[in-house]
Specification:
The protein has 297 residues and is α+β, with helices and mostly antiparallel strands. Helices cover 64% and strands 13% of the residues.
């Protein structure tokens, strides 16, 4: 994150710094704490099982002793009653201990299930942008590497689009950062609603989004991106706090298709160059690295 000409960080840059460093550290702490709890619970469950094994051995010994007594002696009524009494008590104790063990293991199972769900939640939070709810930069980086490798292994196309909200800085300056956040959330929700199955929308930073589009060509991706562009353009936005009209918001796209020698960095760079062309040519349009270029009517 670069410090602007004023020598100060604006709210957007501070948010990116927090998500990148402090938020990651907080999530890491949660993972460690949850892991410690999980270890404690598993240790307690193993100890309960070991104790149950010891108690079972003691019960078996009581049975063996009773069997030996029955075989070795001519029993009168009192002696028989004594042996039966000891067996009854041992059986009662064993039944009680088994009930306690069952309860303890059920509690451990419930606790472990909750901890597992908590770890899954932490993992989801670590890969999700806190403002918009779409994937964050970390998830995008991981998924792009995976999709590139998958595309090469399975020989299918892979398309990448970068989206930017037009004139967002001016919008932010005029209406404030909270209203700017409202616009970012709206654009994110629109992209996520219209994206194809198995495609990934991620917030790349600030007012920029990226879309990983496996199994379709750049040419096939353009109509999908056009639907997104038009859905944003026609929406009349209002400021939540005052109900004032914010007018129309528009977005621009740069889109490119994976080439044989591409890395993550080169396909991103080419999509970004096409986005720059869309901005330079008037915004509110989709620009690809092929002749196809669609422009707002």
């Amino acid at each position: 994150v670069a410090i602007g000409e004023t020598g100060r960080l604006d709210e957007q840059q501070l948010e990116e710094l927090y998500d990148r460093y402090f938020n990651s550290a907080r999530l890491g702490t949660h993972v460690v704490q949850t892991g410690d709890k999980l270890t404690t619970e598993l240790t307690a469950a193993l100890q309960a099982l070991n104790l149950a094994g010891t108690r079972t051995d003691a019960f078996n010994e009581s049975l063996d002793n009773a069997a030996q007594a029955l075989e070795a002696e001519t029993l009168d009524g009192h002696k028989l009653i004594e042996i039966v009494s000891r067996l009854s008590q041992a059986t009662h104790d064993m039944s009680k201990q088994n009930a306690e063990l069952s309860k303890r293991l059920e509690e451990s199972s419930n606790e472990i299930s909750e901890l597992r769900d908590h770890l899954q939640l932490i993992r989801t939070e670590a890969l999700t942008d806190s403002l918009t709810g779409v994937a964050n930069r970390k998830q995008f980086d991981n998924m792009l590497r995976y999709r590139i490798q998958e595309s090469r292994n399975l020989q299918y196309p892979l398309t990448l689009a970068i989206c930017d909200i037009d004139f967002f800085k001016s919008f932010n300056d005029n209406w404030g950062h909270q209203t700017g956040d409202q616009v970012i959330r709206f654009v994110a929700a629109t992209l996520d609603r219209l994206v194809l199955k198995d495609h990934l929308v991620a917030r790349y930073g600030g007012e920029e989004f990226v879309i990983i589009m496996p199994r379709i060509t750049c040419h096939e991706a353009i109509p999908v991106l056009e639907r997104m562009r038009r859905a944003v353009e026609v929406k009349k936005l209002k400021r939540k706090s005052t109900n004032e009209s914010l007018g129309n918001v528009t977005i621009s796209f740069g889109v490119t298709e994976l080439k044989a020698d591409d890395s993550s960095a080169t396909i991103i760079r080419r999509a970004d160059q096409n986005l720059y062309s869309a901005k330079r040519n008037g915004r509110n349009q989709v620009v690809a690295d092929r002749p196809e270029r669609t422009q707002a009517a």
